[in-house]
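Please, structure for the following, as C-alpha cells.
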Amino acid sequence: MIKRISIFLHIVFFSLCFPYTFSAAENTTPSGIPIEELEQFVDEYAEEYIGSTVAGAAIIAIKDNQIVLSKGYGYADVENQIPMNPDTTVLEWGSITKLFVWVSAMQLAEQGELDLEEDIRTYLPEEFLTKLNYDDPITILNLMHHNAGFEEYIFDLLFESPEQLVDLEESLKLAEPEQVYKPGEVVAYSNYSTSLAAYIIEEITGQPFYDYVNEHIFDELEMNHSTMHLPVEDNQEITRHKGIGYFPGENGDFMESQSFYISMYPSGGINGTAADLAKFAQALMPSEPEKTSLFQEDQTLQKLLTTSYAPEEGVPGLAHGFWEYDGEYRGLTHSGNTVAYSSNMQIVPEDNFAIVILTNQADEIDLLFGLTDELVDRGDQTVRENLPPAAEVEGSYLSARRTFNGFMNLYAYLAPLDVKPMDDNEIELDLAGFKATYVQTSPYVYKLKSGDDVFIPSNVMYFHVNDGMSEQISTAYADYLPMDKNTPFLLISLGLFIWCMVYFLISPFVLMVLAFFRRRRKRKKAPIAKWNWLLMLSGTLLAVNIAVLIIRMLSNPMRTYSELLPHFIGNYLFTATSIIAVVMMILVRKKAPLSKMQKTGYLLTGFSSILFIIWLIIWQMYA
C-alpha cells in the first residue's frame, strides 16, 4: 500500500509540474512510475527480499525498445560473494523456454510447413500416442493452449545425473500421460504438450530442436550467452558463469541445491543471462519502423501476440502460448520454475514496456510477481450493477493440472481451492493457506482485490455457471473443477489411514509384550497365532513402505518411475501375504479354544488389514 501511495504522489507531483496531460505511455511504466525514478523504486522494493528470502536476482526493464534498467541484486554465489550480473550471470529460465517452442512453431507456420489447426498425428510417427481416450483431433493450438487434455505426469521429467538423460523422442514415450479431458475443453498446464510440439518441429525440420533454436532464434538475436543444449557441463563458458541455485534456510541462510537435468528440455531447459532474455523481449516489440528478425512478415508477429484462446469475451486467455495478463494495458507473460531457479518475463506491447526477472531460487514470488504487478498495475475493476450473487460460486475445487492415475492422485486433495462468499459481490479464496479476496466486476468474472502474491498470475477468474452451479473456473495456467469427492468421504479416508498406520506400527510391540508374558506363564500358543503374527508383520511392512514412499516424495517429488517401482512391488507382495494370512486365520480359527480377548484381537487385526488394503486400492497405491 505504501508503494502505491508513493506512486500516486509521484504522478500528482509530475502532473502539477507540467502543463500537458500526463500519460503512462510517454515515459513511465504502465503503472505510472516515471522511468527516471524506476531504479530507485526497484532498489527499494528489492531491498526487502534480497538476502532474506532470495539470494539474488537479475532485473531488466525495457521501454520503447531501450534498456532503461539493468541491474543485479544480491549474489549469484553466496559463499564466494560473486554478485548477480544481468549481462554475465547464467541462470535457468525454466518454463519461459516454452515461448521458444511457440515462436518456432509460428516460424514454420509462416513458411507453410506447419498447420496450427491440423491434427498433430499427421506429423507424428504411427502409434506414437498410445494413451488417447478421445477421437477428437489434437492441434498445435491445443498444445499452445494447454488444453489437449493430458493429465499431469511428474515422473521421468527431472534427473539427478546427466547420464540419465535420454533424447526427446524417448523421453516423450517414457513419460506419456493419459488423456483425461476432451481436447479444447479444459486448460491444464502441460510440460508434455510443449515438448510434444518441439518433437513435431524436429520431425518437420529434420534437426534436433535445440539446433533449430540456436540457428533461428539465438543466432538471429545474438543471444550469445544462452543455451538450450543439455547438459550445460558440455559448455564450459555457460558453466563458468552459471549462478548457484539455492533453497531458503533458517535465519536468512541459503542452502545450495544439487543439479538436476531434464530430458524434455523444450519445456524448461534454457540456461542463459537476463540480458539475452531481454533481447528476446525486445524482438517481440520492435520499434517502428524496425522489423523483428524472428519472422519474415510483420503479420506473423502480430498474429503470435493476438488472443488465440479465451474462456469468455473480455477474460484473459492465451496468445499462441503467451499467457494474457489483465493489467493497466494488456500484458503477455510467462514465468518459470526449476528445482532452484525461477523467472518471469512480461511484455506490454501497447505501452512498449517489458520486464525480465531471473532469480536463483525456486518458487520465488515476491519479486517475480509482486514487483511485476507494481510496474504494470492491474486492470480496470469497475463493478457493474445487478451481478449474480457470489454464493453461486462457493465450493471446493481441484486443479485440472493433476495426476489421475497412480498414487500421486492423492496430492490434489491435500490442497483444494476453497471459495467462500464474503458478501454478494466478493469472495475469499484459500489455497493451501494462501488467501486472497476477489471482487466480481461483471457476471461471474472476479478480479483480484488483495491477497498473497501467489494469486497475482491468476488475477482474473471466470466461473462457468450453469443453473446456479459453478462447473469450472478458468484462470491462468490451469482451470479448476469442482471437488469430485465429498467431505465425509475424505474425512473417513483420512481417519482410516491414520488408524491403520498407527495400529500396524504399534501393534507388533504389543504382541511382543504379550508373547513375553505368555512364555513366562508357559501358556501354549494357539495355531492361529502364527498367522496373526504374519498378518500383523505384513501390515506393518505395508505401513512402513507407504511411510517411506511419502517421505521420499516429499523430499524430492521429481523422481524416475523406476526409483519407486520397489515400493509398488512391496505393496503387492505384502498385500498378497496379508490375504494369505487372513484366509489361513479363517480356516484354523476353530482348531483351538480362544478367549474373548484373543478373538477380539485377531478380529481387529484382520479387519484393519482388510480396510488398509481397500484404502490402498482406492488411492492407487499399487502404481
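The two ends are 49 Å apart (CA to CA). Residues 1-25 have pLDDT under 50 and may be disordered.
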